[in-house]
Amino acid sequence: MDRRSFLAYTALFGSSIAFGMTEEFDDTIVRSGATRTTVSLLDKLNTVQDRVGYVQFNAISFDEMLKVAHYCNKPLNQSEIGYIEAIFYGDPRRYGFYGERTVPSLTAVTPKSDLQYISKTGHFLLKGAAIEKYTSIKKLLGNDVILTSGVRAPVKQLYLFMKKMVNEGGDLRATSTSIAPPGFTFHSVGDFDIGKAGYGQYNFTERFQETDVFKKLYDQGYITIRYTSNNPFGVRYEPWHIKVTGGNETA
Ligand SMILES: [Zn+2]
């Protein structure tokens, strides 16, 4: 790890990652260090996604990802792995994200036998409570409702987080307002997103609340908002997110 990146980790994650000294949070260092690493990581993760396909990439484990990257001649270096570990195991409250941890280990594997592919969506759902909820939602709304995002293992969440981070110029605080860091998303443990068919990107805006799909689901009690507007967790309000697992009951 070069000195600049090292300083970025120290500034961000403090004594748990570096040697017991607490640096001031220096946004400039964080931005420059983070941007360079995220761009190269994003390139490698894109290569892995191209190789395994969009669907399988949603559920790929960290170890599988490392193997595929190596096979594609884009192995992750120690500095990049260190950076991922710092994001995954570091305390996100340092950059304003207060959601709870959902996955204890970066190398956690979701057994393929626990997953069910949802035809034509590109996404998996976890068997059990998530499938039951999705099935009853489909029964209520039929083809008007679509699954827009299902299971996201830590690697997929890392990829989305890196993508957003590059767009935000390496600003972790801004990034984590709209997407949870890997290890902190309920998509890894059962939650999923739904939308109105044909509504495209509006499904991920507050306009979704104006749709019949949202109103019907809300009236029938299917939508329990995990992160309400002005929630104390530093996460944006997401009316399209279907809560399946426990946690943040008071949010
Ligand atoms: Zn969601």
Write the layout of secondary structure elements.
Elements: H1 3-13, H2 27-52, H3 54-57, H4 62-71, H5 78-89, E1 115-118, E2 123-126, H6 129-141, E3 145-149, H7 154-167, H8 172-178, E4 192-196, H9 212-219, E5 241-242
Antiparallel strand pairs: 1-2, 3-4, 4-5
Helix pairs in contact: 1-2, 2-7
Description:
It is a single chain. With 251 residues, the chain is mainly alpha-helical. The protein has two domains: 3-90, no CATH class; 112-151 and 190-242, Muramoyl-pentapeptide Carboxypeptidase, domain 2 (2-Layer Sandwich). Helices cover 42% and strands 8% of the residues. The chain contains nine helices and five strands, in the order H-H-H-H-H-E-E-H-E-H-H-E-H-E. It has helices at 3-13, 27-52, 54-57, 62-71, 78-89, 129-141, 154-167, 172-178, 212-219; strands at residues 115-118, 123-126, 145-149, 192-196, 241-242. The strands form two sheets. A three-stranded antiparallel β-sheet has the order 3-4-5. The protein has a two-stranded antiparallel sheet with strand order 1-2. The N and C termini lie far apart (39 Å). The chain binds zinc ion. Residues 149, 187, 191, 193, 238, 241 line the site of zinc ion (ZN).
Number of helices: 9
CATH level 1 name of the largest domain:
Alpha Beta
CATH architecture classification of the largest domain: 2-Layer Sandwich
**Shape descriptor:** globular
State the helical fraction: 40-55%
Q: What string gives the helices and strands in order? A: HHHHHEEHEHHEHE
Approximate strand percentage: 5-15%
End-to-end Cα distance:
39 Å
The tally of strands reads: 5
Rg of Cα set: 19 Å
Bound molecules: zinc ion
**Strand order in space, largest sheet:** 3-4-5
